[in-house]
Amino acid sequence: MRVIDSHVHFPSEKIIDTGGADRPEGKAAGASMPGAPAPANPWLIEEKEKWKRAWRFPPEEKLDTEESIRRWKAECDSHDFLKNVVFVTAGDNEFAAELAEKDGRFIGYAHHDPLLPDAADRLEKALGSLRLRGYKLLGPQIDVPLNDKRFYPLWEIAQAREVPVLIHFGILGGAGGIANHININPLVIHDVAKDFPRLPIIIPHFGCGYVFETLNLCWACPNVCIDTSGSNQWMRWMPYELNLEILFRKYRETIGAGRILFGTDSSWFPRGFTDAYLDEQIRAMVYVGYSADELDRVLYSNAASLLKL
């Protein structure tokens, strides 16, 4: 078995690179997570603890940057099947580039605020001299519809460079987070996908609650892929029964195994690389009937092709 984890966050307080500047409109970006709940609310605290208990995750350790780098190197060493780790966020673009230089198994994405006045220039630099391999965005943190023409210079750069754009849609922040926003629905990117047919777009977490919409988007736009990252606990909030087997079967029936990328959404330690997510996803694919070749495509070769490894 060989694996590329296509969705990892290097431990950092920032999930969007603001470049040290405030954008000219909308709320400021760069918070650790939008819609952070008031810590005194007992229900929200219990929901977070329930998630940790369900997966038997230990308490998070506060590590300095160098120790976090050392730990991630050790994770790759101890999991010999783990060929590459894609850090979709790492605090800022410059550090993401430094991180990728420290180990050939590390890959970095740009993740700066797309509403910055120089966002296009930043992306050109990130994909050029910084040699980052993609662009990560959080839809519900961007207060302008993603099909707005002001973002088209970004899509043009990413398409010209042939790098993927990973965009989170759906609920953001877990219990107490964002559930309603102009960029909550992945169909907002439909016209962009049509206008930029050579731009690879990745929708993470199977669409994060917007399964019908994501399937429709993928059916209409062959340049749209999905990733499988995270605990996908959003399945608990759906109005109909849903599990990983259903998701893997439905996406395979709709778009084939060639547009599904494995990811974990791993980040902090001592959890590290989340083996439990990998085990659950492999089990679901095997029970659904994925062949050995299809398993390899999801776990490794789809991402390797997309990232030109």
TrEMBL record:
One term of GO molecular function: hydrolase activity
Matches recorded under PANTHER family: 2-AMINO-3-CARBOXYLMUCONATE-6-SEMIALDEHYDE DECARBOXYLASE, ISO-OROTATE DECARBOXYLASE (EUROFUNG)
Lineage per the UniProt record: Bacteria, Pseudomonadati, Spirochaetota, Spirochaetia, Spirochaetales
GO biological process, one term: secondary metabolic process
Pfam families assigned: Amidohydro_2
InterPro entries: ACMSD, Amidohydro-rel, Metal_Hydrolase
GO CC entries: cytoplasm
Every Amidohydrolase-related domain range: 4-309
Name this protein carries in UniProt: Amidohydrolase family protein
Annotated segments matching region Disordered: 14-41
Keywords attached to this entry: Lyase
Start-end of Basic and acidic residues biased regions: 14-26
